[in-house]
Amino acid sequence: MQNRFSDTDYIEKPTLFLEFHGNEAGLNQDVEFMKEIVKDHQCEDMVFEEDTRARNKLWEARHNLAYAYVHGHPGRKLMVTDVCVPISQLSGAVQFARKKLEELDLIGGILGHVGDGNYHTSLMIDLNDPDEVKRAGLYNELIVEYALLRNGTCTGEHGVGVGKMKYQEREHGGALKVMEKIKHALDPLEIFNPHKLVHKKKEESE
Length: 206
Description:
The structure is a single chain. The protein has three domains: 1-63, no CATH class; 74-162, Alpha-Beta Plaits, CATH 3.30.70; 173-206, no CATH class. A hairpin with a 6-residue loop joins strand 3 (108-111) and strand 4. The termini are far apart. Strands 1, 2, 3 and 4 form a four-stranded antiparallel sheet that branches. It is globular and about 55 Å long. Helices cover 44% and strands 9% of the residues. By secondary structure, it is of the alpha+beta class.
């Protein structure tokens, strides 16, 4: 007997959520253009909603993805990566991220609000497994490296002040020194967001 799934089961179904804005003529043109694109990529179904409540229900599925991963892998902790690339480099970046996810034998999925080239990988890590933790760190290094080599950024929104500090000099070059001097001039006592992203170096304070 063939198994049946409800419309809210996204098992093995890559799902793309799109939101369009504009006047009616512009929206219709955008939707038709979108239909042509996804048709070439074996899209199985398209669902459109105009009612606010119905739209919110669709977006709820997107916003609950992280919770789905957490509840689907008890005993593991969620680690979210975050890089951003130029739109022209996005498809290659996502394919690279998926390939490395499989090569490093990590549990996770790729998602994001990709209209600005920003995508995430949600990794479910066993913190009691040092080798897995190490592979997760390597994974993050690899996708950041990929982004920086393509004029992207090490972060689109998460972990700028702590987790991504080590990438700032490579990404910004000499501009980082300028930012540090401006920060020190405005905040010599390091009381504004202390020890985050741009801060007074230890040797400078001695």
